[in-house]
Amino acid sequence: MKRSPKRYSEGEKAVALEALNLAGGNVARAARETGIYVNTLREWAHGRNVSPSIYVDYVAKKKGAVSARLSALQDRLVEALFDEEKIEAARYGELSTAFGIVTDKLRLMDERPTAITEARDDSEIRAKTLALLEDYKAALDGDEAKAKEALLRDAPSLDEYLN
Asked: Among residues of the chain, what percentage have pLDDT more than 70?
């Protein structure tokens, strides 16, 4: 005779999902601790067969736990970036890349932008650069070649606006 599946209350589901959070997302360990089948826990962890309020609470706690772990990792990476022994033992570029990735992920979790989103107006920069070139020319008796050379020596990043 086939048994009908066990019915769990929303409270039991909430407790099981909390156990999953405490197990660091390790479904097998949480299943052993709660006595609930692995597949059932996986379904609840993906929002299936569980009330939206319990699932939202689970996700918020999970996000907080992940954020806390990433913050701790970020702190360790900062320490490693300034630790002379680690600098010599590891490739500095790898440490800085890891730090950048962790920082980026934390910004995403906080719903903050991770890239420069401001558009720049190149035409305005170009106009100001050309006006500055005119000032240099006036100071150098109208010699455009010398003015351009002096301006680029003082502000090499303006080269793209002079051509």
From this structure: 91
